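Below is the data:
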Amino acid sequence: MEGVGPLTALLVWGVVHAQEDTELRWQAAGQVDSAPFGVVDLGVRRGTWSAELLTDTLDLRWSPEGDKGRAWVALRGELGAAALMMGPWTSGAPAPEQGFGASYLGGEAGILGYGRHGLYAGLAGHARRVSFRELPVTEVALPAPSPWLLADVVAGLYRPQGHIWVRAGVQHDALGDSVQPHVHATATATPDFGERLGAVVELRAGTARGQSILTRTRVGGMNPYVVPIAGAGWGEWWAESYAIGRLGPRLTWDKGDHTVQHRLVVDGGLADDLTASAASDAALLWGVGSLNRWARQRWFGELDVGWGAGLSRGEGVLPVSVWFAVGRSWG
């Protein structure tokens, strides 16, 4: 990953020499809890090609799209924080001594076909090689380098106020079973009840067998990179099986050139936890959150505050997490 520096310079060059058909995006964000993490993203896109620096991940992608579907091929490399292996939690508190750095280099590809009435289906997968490194606080043995392979069948239904999608397939790495079957489903809806009043309804569920600490699903937090639980730490649970819902009212003020949206939500459900390399029974988890977003053309700002009212916390750990973001979307 020594090439991250020169490739970052290439992204900056793209910004400086951008033409009319070149799109740019950026974001600065983070989650504040007992083990905070930050996000800094920069992207350049022109036609079907894009290059993005996503904190510690470099993504170079070709993704053509037409009326009948889309496809993608990407080269990805992550340096340091792959799968958030450096930030495990146990017994309601951060456990950095059980973590270590993880990096990977590999590729991914997929194809989706668009059908009638918002239906779509296709295939997706990736092949990566993951390596691990000791951190100053690490007190556990490092795993040997491992392949990480994934192959999924994907299907979904899209509507302007709702989206349902399912992916099912297998993973493989050297830390878990040779064949790790899984199925995951997500359903979201944003019904409107008037000019300003609406609702948010979400359900995320999945189950798998034989997964490792690398391939399990990260549950918990206020950020968009996990299965969310308001008030929880970022990826606090590393689960094989989970079912988490989100429900609440939504208020929207459209001021013409900008929009303000507020959502008051309750997150709750069940998840098992294998974070410390030992399986636990499924636990009931819940929290409440205030989610706030401002947007003006392509600019946006977010401030979400969560209280883990139904979470078990370790000594000195507050049941509170905050997500903030500011940035500019593609365009």
